[in-house]
Amino acid sequence: MESIKNIHLKILSLSLVSLFVVLLLGNSFSYLDNDFGWHLLAGKEILKNGQVPQVADYSHTLPGAAWVDHEWLIDAVTYFLYDRLGYITVSIFFAAIILAVFIILYRRQFARLEKSVFWFFALGFLAYFAARHSLGVRMQEVTLLGLLLELSVIDNFQKSRRSKDLYWLVPLFLIWANLHAGFLVGLALLLGYFVLMALLDFGRRWQDRLKFIDFSQTLPLERVRVFGLWAVLAAASTLVNPYGWKMYDFFFSFGNTYYLTAISEWMPFYFFPQQPLVVLYLCLVATALILVLVKVINRSRGFKIDLWWLSLVLLFWVMSLKSRRHTPLLAVVSLPWLVDIFSKEFVVANVRQWLVSKRARIIIGTGSAVFFSLAAFCFTKVSFTNSPFDYYCGYFPCAAVAELKSSVPAPARVLNDFNWGGYLLWQWPGLPLFVDGRQPQHGYEDHTILEEYHRFFKEGEADKYLKKHRIDMVMLSKPRDPEITWFNRLLFGITESDLRADSHLIDYLKSAKEWRNCFEDGLAIAFCKN
Predict the structure, then answer these.
(1) pTM of the entire structure?
(2) Could you tell me which of 222, 198, 224, 223 has the C-alpha nearest to residue 307?
């Protein structure tokens, strides 16, 4: 009976994982990341020259400026896959990263899956849909995997107390630091865990008063010191990279936080476009946090909190409130915690007996067939392509590039749409751009280059800044009022007048005698200087 029960659960899980894989691929092919072009270009140069880029030489505004490509290794891997095997392989590669995250989370729950299978997949799919806007072919996905592996190492050490479980921190951080700057989050967590364990060891003397805290997993001070040693070694391993200490330089450029209010994915969840499932997941985590607080206040019998995991969830929840880009990190950290909370609070009685019943076999078998069928149907709807720069012309200026490359002299200084920087770098090599997605927070005069870019669009400022930067071509997306959903209207009170796109710069260019309209279609508009 036990084996039959496990087979049923595994078949159901396999059907749900199959659906998840198809959803990952569908999401990867639903759009093209604005920065994908410059990632490819950087990767191409790394493999061609055998060294990492040191200078931001793609724009005319920051000539000779130092540039640390903190994603150099994943850029090189991505270009290699793209060049040899095509965009489909690249998409599968990044989907496999998220699938690996999902499987690791699944394996952590498997020992008690019969009690929490519903909650794991229900909350897992909700977490995915909340995070999907930041997933796809995105370099930061490696940080999701790195974070989960780090937490797994810490969790294993906390249970076994064996030093050898910490050995993995060194190679993990060495590789992670060369793949993505998110390793800094991992270092911060190492420090946080060390401090928390030291405080808990000190607080043992008051554990009779702090009965709501679970001290059973608290490390003795000697083990805390061992952890601290390996954390230092892990931090030191991050210096084994082509940039050395310079890998940390870019961190200080984030002192200016203008990009948090100017780039959509970095904005708080309540900025337009508000995403219903992001809000729902944030509320769900908040509900679980409140539930924990109520139990602590009421001194519920036998209830104890794991301060480490509670601190993690609270930290990433706050981070996600401040920036929706962090929602995937919250999903990875909070999913196992939420499953534990809800599976304990909403227990299905006699689950073991039910799972081996005839009715359970019928329901699980039918559900598995439905999910396999749904996965097959969704697979037929995935828009596979190996030519992403030609396929997504509804979002990027394909026609404008083709026309202007052949009809106008090569421009010396282009003012380009910020969201098109990566696309133009790849599709129009050598085009001197104003800005792209690599360094929006890079300093320029007494502000950032992104702030300088936005000054072109202020009323009455166009002529001043066009002359200041000696611009001879402007290529922008045509102003379009964004679509407002019922969710934006009902919950956040957004109206069309709140988001009406301004066109001060385009209006000026249309009326100025020294400028002419050299291209226009439904998506893009370009002006060339006479």
Answers:
(1) 0.91
(2) 198
Nearest alpha-carbon partner for 516 in 400, 408, 395, 413: 408
Beta pairing class for 515-520 and 524-529 = antiparallel
pLDDT bucket at 261, cuts 50 / 70 / 90: confident
**pLDDT tens-digit series, residues 116-163:** 777 888 899 999 999 999 999 999 999 999 999 999 999 999 989 999
Calpha distance 135→130 (Å, rounded): 10
Are 29 and 392 in contact by the 8 Å Cβ rule? The answer is: no
Residue 332 corresponds to which tokens in the numbers above?
């990875």
**Phi and psi at residue 396, in whole multiples of 5°?**
-130, 155
331 contacts 224 by C-beta, under 8 angstroms: no
Is the pLDDT at 378 greater than 70? The verdict is yes
- What average pLDDT does this structure show over 186-193? 96
- What is the reported pLDDT for 341? 86
- Sign (positive/negative) of CA torsion 188, 259, 250, 28? positive
Nearest to 518 by CA among 509, 527, 508: 527
Nearest to residue 184, comparing CAs of 71, 263, 95, 310?
Answer: 71
For residue 213, CA distances in Å to 209, 216, 299 come to 9, 9, 11
Contact 506, 479 (CB under 8 A): yes
- Buried residues in 76-99 as b, exposed as e (16+ CB within 10 A): bbbbbbbeeeebbebbbbbbebbb
Pairing between strand 473-477 and 524-529?
A: antiparallel
Q: State mean pLDDT over 331-338.
A: 93
Residue 317: phi, psi to the nearest 5? Answer: -65, -45
Q: With bands split at pLDDT 50, 70 and 90, how would you rate the model's confidence at 320?
A: very high
What does the alpha-carbon distance between residue 245 and residue 32 come to, in Å, rounded to a whole number?
Answer: 33
